[in-house]
Amino acid sequence: MTLHPIRRSFVVPILGAALAVAAASAVGTPGAAQGPGDSPATQGGHDMSSMPGMGGEHTMPGPPGPMPGMEGAGAADGAMSHEHMGMGPHMKMTAPRPRTADDQRRADAIAQTLRGAIAKYRDYRVAVAEGFIQYLPNIPQPMYHFTNYGHAYQAEFSFDPARPTSLLYKPVPGGFELAGAMYTAPRRFDEAQLDERVPLSIASWHQHVNICLPPKSGYATADWQRFGFKGTIATASECQASGGLFHPVIFGWMVHAYPFEKDPAKIWAN
User: Which of 36, 55, 33 is nearest to 44 (CA)?
Assistant: First the structure.
């Protein structure tokens, strides 16, 4: 499927390491899937290409490119690691609701639809051929996101359980193993709207908040223990005092699903 550039603002939520990754741009990894590249867009002194969930403030030029001059940043922010799913100063989770039988039936139906829709992508090359692009392929990660920017755009306006924004792959010798998928929603959504897509009594949507990033010119020398998605800076005042740029919310809403899990409790696990 060929994706044509979309020249209007929207949010494409994808994981919290886009700004904090040191891409060894000239060095590929053995597990990297091949796909087209593009130069990153900029906003506020940062490379913001393919940054999903930027609240309608950005355009989508195409797949993300590496960010030169950010050596060391990726390790600090954990790239696309799933180890960040906890309540902390940089993570906002939806409040759990009492589970109901109707919610369970609705979540089961979503998972069943998703399972059937993405089964063909067990071969990651099929996903690439149909427009899913591996995000940050040069950064070692326990789980890679392959994102379809057309799906991401559509998720800004409607929910189709058969069209997730991203596919989640574990790297394995010789390629990738399909683990699940990620749905996204606009950051303007309230919890009632999120619940209409995937019930909050079954799954927890999450959002990246209170992020302080250094100016682009300072990426190479920044202290990524303080800046970024896992940094210690979590307030606007401290960020300003450190010469950074503060983002109260940097992505839209996201929720992961693992429809091939045998244990029902793990299908919507964070």
Answer: 55
Strands (E), the chain: 42-43, 46-47, 91-93, 133-134, 144-147, 166-172, 175-185, 206-213, 245-249, 253-257
Is 95 part of a structural domain of the chain?
yes
120: exposed, middle or buried (Cβ count in 10 Å: 0-12, 13-18, 19+): exposed
Q: How far is CA 6 from the centre of its chain?
A: 19
pTM: 0.71
- Measured CA to CA, the distance from residue 256 to residue 70 in angstroms comes to 28
Residue range(s) defining the domain that contains residue 228:
42-267
Report how far residue 45's alpha carbon sits from residue 51's, in angstroms, rounded to the nearest whole number.
Answer: 14
In the prediction, which pLDDT does 214 show?
A: 93
Report yes or no on 263 lying in a domain: yes
First to last CA, the chain: 30
The Cα–Cα gap between 2 and 23 comes to 26
For residue range 126-146, what is the model confidence (pLDDT) as tens digits? 999 999 999 889 888 899 999
Number of domains in the chain: 1
SS3 (DSSP) at 42: strand
**Nearest residue to 196 via CA among 181, 180, 182, 185:** 185
DSSP state for residue 60 in the 8-state scheme:
B
